[in-house]
Each structure stands twice: as C-alpha cells, then as structure tokens.
Amino acid sequence: MIEVKTSKLSDGEFNRGVFATQDFAKGDLIHEAPVIPYPNEEHEHIEKTLLADYVFEYGANHSALLLGYGMLFNHSYTPNARYDLNFDNHTVDFFAFTDIKAGDEILINYNGEEDCNDPMWFEDKS
C-alpha cells in the first residue's frame, strides 16, 4: 500500500518520504503507526538528538516516537493526508485527506490541522 522512496521535499542525509503504491480515496486508512509515548518532562533528552525533529505531540502530557512509517511522512501546507491520535490502540492513524494516486508522495501538515499555516521550525519546500 505504501513504500519509502527518495523525496524531493526532504533535505539532509536521508531524503526519504512515504509514497502510495496504490490509489487511496479520500478518507481511506493509509497507515497505523504504533507509538512509544514518553512524558513531556523527558523531552529535554530527546531535544539533544536528531529524533527531536520526528516526535509527535501525544496528548497534553506526552510526546511520542512513531514506529512503522510514521516518522517518515513529509510536511506540506497543502497535504493529501491527515493523522489522528488513537489512544485506544496506541497508534497514530494516517488517512487520505484527498484522493491519492499510486506513485504520489503522501504528505501531512505537521501543524496537525490540514489548513494551519503556522511557520515550521525548518524551511518548508512544499
């Protein structure tokens, strides 16, 4: 359903992104990424590492590292996917926000809301 390939949007050493290997209709579940949550008080340790750019807010008192493809979705202010925190399953669930064609890179808005244009902590290339 999805695969990791080289992305033109991603800078740095890895240049990875998540791409569709099949068509997705708006609302389709794309991926369920298991999480490793940790208390916000411990985030100061994560901030000293490369992982700081890949962590998601996970409720009011926690942050989380995402497993699976979860940390590899790139940002866009015009995303074709969205994500929901699923506390019951301890996952972050990614859904098609628009129709997505096979071969398209799957993009989310890191701000959490699809239409939020708040500045990012990095240069946005989308």
In words, what does this structure look like?
It holds the Pfam family SET. Residues 1-111 form the SET domain. Helices cover 3% and strands 35% of the residues. It has 126 residues and is mainly beta. The chain has a single domain (2-108), classed as SET domain (Beta-clip-like), CATH 2.170.270. It has a 5-stranded antiparallel beta sheet with strand order 4-5-3-8-7, with no helix packed on it. It has a two-stranded antiparallel sheet with strand order 1-2. The chain has a two-stranded parallel ribbon with strand order 6-9. Strand 7 and strand 8 (91-96) form a beta hairpin.
Give a topology summary:
Elements: E1 2-6, E2 16-20, E3 29-39, H1 43-46, E4 56-57, E5 62-66, E6 74-75, E7 81-86, E8 91-96, E9 107-108
Parallel strand pairs: 6-9
Antiparallel strand pairs: 1-2, 3-5, 3-8, 4-5, 7-8
Protein name: SET domain-containing protein
Pfam families: SET (PF00856)
Domain SET: 1-111
Tell me the strand percentage band. Answer: 25-35%
Strand order of the largest sheet: 4-5-3-8-7
What helical percentage do the residues reach? under 10%
Provide the CATH architecture.
Beta Complex
The helix/strand series, from N terminus to C terminus, equals EEEHEEEEEE
Overall mean pLDDT? 89
Distance between the termini: 23 Å
Task: Assign the CATH superfamily.
Answer: SET domain
List low-confidence stretches.
Answer: none
Largest sheet: 5 strands, antiparallel
> How many helices in DSSP terms?
1
Q: Based on DSSP secondary structure assignment, what is the total number of beta strands?
A: 9
